[in-house]
Amino acid sequence: MSTKIRSVNRKLPPEKDLLEDASPWYSVGKILPTSTKSKADVFTSFRPTKQCVDYSISETWTKMQKGDLKVNIKQTVANYKDIPPEICKPKRPKKTKLFSGGPPQWKFIDELWRLHVEGAQVKLKSEQKITSKQIKVQRALKHRNVHCIVQEMVGPDWFIELNPKQLQAVDELPHAVWFDFSKGGTMYCEELLAELGLVLRPNQYHVRKALLHSCGDPVEFLLVLYQLMNPARTSYSLNDRLVLSAVVHLSLMSTLKELHVRIPSPPNLPGQPPVLKKKLAKKTQISPYLQSLTYQPPPPRFSGVYKNKHRQYPQSCYFAYKSALEQQKK
Q1: Which of 194, 215, 217, 195 is nearest to 204 (CA)?
Q2: For 147-169, what is the HEC assignment?
Q3: Angle between the 238-262 and 321-329 helix axes, to the nearest 10 degrees?
Q4: Helix (H) or strand (E) holding 37
Q5: 228: preceding bond cis by omega (within 30 degrees)
Q6: Strand partners, 73
Q7: Sequential DSSP letters for 242-277
Q8: Cα 201 to the chain's mean position, in Å?
Q9: Long-range CB contacts (< 8 A, 24+ apart) of 236-240?
Q10: Where are the beta strands (DSSP E) in 26-133?
Q11: Which one of 71, 95, 130, 217 has the minimum C-beta count within 10 Å?
């Protein structure tokens, strides 16, 4: 006799809520939970962590619904009953331990002193580093300021002071330019440019071209040579400064002469006769006790204001034109 066992998989009915069954509203669907976290048991958090005689935990659910709005309220209450103090053992008083008032001495005095000195040295070294940095910054700022002041005193960037040998070479340049221009050579001009200190020296083609365009004028020769040496310059090189300083030396006397002719010095103001003050006759009294006590001090010998009635000119070679100009006026 054979028996067949037939297994039937029946779906369990969903969990029903008693409040939902009693309410006139019914749910259309149920939203399934999607979180993988398991719900924490509320009762475990309310269980006592210390000893107690008895405790009780109660949970109350309240559900309210109005229209599509549904509110669920859950309240958990726990009551604990502590152990009566009569049953508990009395607490023992803490024992007072007597000690010397300080920790045990694990280091000797010399070791403590050495540690103190090392800490002071580290602090002093850090302070010295900070002060040295500040001194370096101050020195750099001072050097920068002094450098700017010296640059302002020297003059513009394109000017450089020439030594006596260079000035002598510049003074001989007009004769050399005229000689080479008339003879069609460049030897004398190249020698004077070498004495002036040009490095690298301009080539022969530039010197010849500058001579042709200058027509024997040394200032024009130097200006044309300055344009030919480096037409795409962005700053003044040493050669540029030497050439422009030579141009200033050659043209300064004529410039001062023209300025003296066009802007003459103002004449001296006509002297006004001094106004003489009338001296009042002193009244002599019979007795010195009857004379007035007003004291008039004598006038000062020097007023403190310096006035020079003569014209003064600087003793410079650039003012050598003055004597010739005065002779032309006569």
Answers
A1: 194
A2: HHHHHHHHCCCCCCCCCHHHHHH
A3: 30
A4: none
A5: no
A6: 62
A7: HHHHHHHHHHHHHHHHHHHHHSPPPPPPPPPPPPPP
A8: 42
A9: 236/157, 236/158, 238/160, 238/197, 238/199, 239/198, 239/199, 239/200, 239/202, 240/158
A10: 54-66, 69-81
A11: 95
CA distance 215 to 155: 31
Euclidean distance between CA atoms 319 and 47, whole angstroms? 115
Specify the pTM: 0.45
- pLDDT tens over the chain, length 330 residues: 433 334 334 444 445 555 556 555 555 666 777 777 777 788 888 888 877 888 888 888 888 877 777 888 888 888 888 888 777 777 788 887 776 666 666 778 888 899 999 999 999 999 999 999 999 999 999 998 988 888 777 778 898 889 999 999 999 999 999 999 998 888 999 999 999 999 888 999 999 999 999 888 999 999 999 999 988 888 999 999 999 999 999 999 888 888 888 886 655 456 667 777 777 777 777 887 877 777 777 777 777 776 766 656 566 778 788 778 878 776
Contact between residue 234 and residue 266 where contact means Cβ atoms under 8 Å apart: no
Q: Label residue 176 exposed, middle or buried (CB < 10 Å: 0-12, 13-18, 19+).
A: buried
Provide the residue ranges of all domains of the chain, joining segments of one domain with +.
Answer: 112-155, 164-262
One-letter amino acid for residue 116 of the chain? H
